Amino acid sequence: MKNITDSFLCLGYWPSAGSFGFNTDILATNPINLSVVLGVLVFFGKGVLSDLLDNRKQRILKTIRNSEELREGAIEQLEKARARLRKVEMEADRFRVNGYSEIERERFNLINSIYTTFEQFENYKNETIHFEQQRAINQVRQRVFQQALQGALGTLNSCLNNELHLRTISANIGMLGAMKEIKD
To answer: Is the model's pTM score more than 0.90?
Structure first.
């Protein structure tokens, strides 16, 4: 029995001699355990890690391709927008030039219209003044004629007798009739 007990003592003393047990020597066990764990991880985890990295690589490449496509689409849209902007700017310049020329043309037409209207008003004014002058002259002539006629009639009535008076009236009526025929 002693051999069996000695063998247990021996096994307790030499834990790496084929039995399981705890080795309390940290410096001796940690590098061995780490190398075993790393070996197992590399051997079994190589495929899984490789698959994970390949999947990640594919996702990154897909994202890059999508980004490139989006970038190209954005560049195309930018070029289209720039072309539309150039077209709109050219149309705006054309409208601006046409607008300025149209404004100048309208301004010129308005000035000409105002000048023509002013000339018409000036002509109407001059015609009205001439008409009023002629009317005033005619009124003055009629009054002078009436006063002269009244004065002559007054002188004739005081100087003439009935017979001479009737002859003078007949002569004047004849003269007025002759003047009326000349006017007509």
So the answer is: no
